[in-house]
Amino acid sequence: QERSALESATRQRLPRSGCQCLSVKKEKVMTENFKLVSVAQAPRTELHDQLGLTGCEVSINSLPAGAAVPFVHAHKQNEELYGVLSGSGEIWIDGEVHAIKAGDWFRVSPAGKRAIRAAENEGITFICMQTKAGSLENYTMTDGVMCEEKAPWLK
Predict the structure, then answer these.
(1) pLDDT in tens, 105-114
(2) Minimal CB count within 10 Å: which of 113, 124, 127, 145?
(3) 44-46 vs 78-93, strand pairing mode
(4) Which residues are CB-contacts of 88 (< 8 A; sequence separation ≥ 6)?
C-alpha cells in the first residue's frame, strides 16, 4: 500500500516539460539537503562541482546548427543517459547513425563508442547524465520514503 501511494504521488508531481538552463550564473545553498544553481546559455556546462554531486555527473550541452562534438568517446565504467531538450541532430553509436530530436531519451553503455552532431539546419541542446553502470540498487519505488511533513500546497 505504501508503495502504491508513493507511485501515485510521484506520478502526480513529475514535471512534464524540460528545462533549457545552461552555464552557471549564481548559486544558492538553501539547506544541507538542497542546492540550487541558475545557469545561462553556454556551449557546455558541467554541474558536478556546482551542485556537489556525489553519485553522477550531469552536463548540459548546446551545439549550433551543423556543429559536432569533435571526438568519439567511450567510458571505462560510466553509462550515459541523454535527453534532447531542443533541436535535432544525429548520434553515431558503434558505427551506426541514429536521428535524434527534442523529446528523445537514450542510454549508452560504457563500451558504446559515441559522437553527437547537430542537424545542418538547426542546433541541438541535450543533457547528459553519467553514472557507474550497475550501481543503481534502489530507485523511486524501492528507495523513496513517504514523509509525514506536508508542503504548503498539499495542506
Answers:
(1) 999 999 999 9
(2) 145
(3) unpaired
(4) 99, 100, 101, 102, 118, 119, 122, 124
| pLDDT-wise least confident of 23-27, 36-40, 100-104, 131-135 | 23-27
Compute the C-alpha angle 29/35/39, nearest 5°. Answer: 100
Burial of 13 (0-12, 13-18, 19+ CB in 10 A): exposed
Quick one: pLDDT at residue 28?
Answer: 55
pLDDT in the model for residue 30: 58
Contact 60, 47 (CB under 8 A): yes
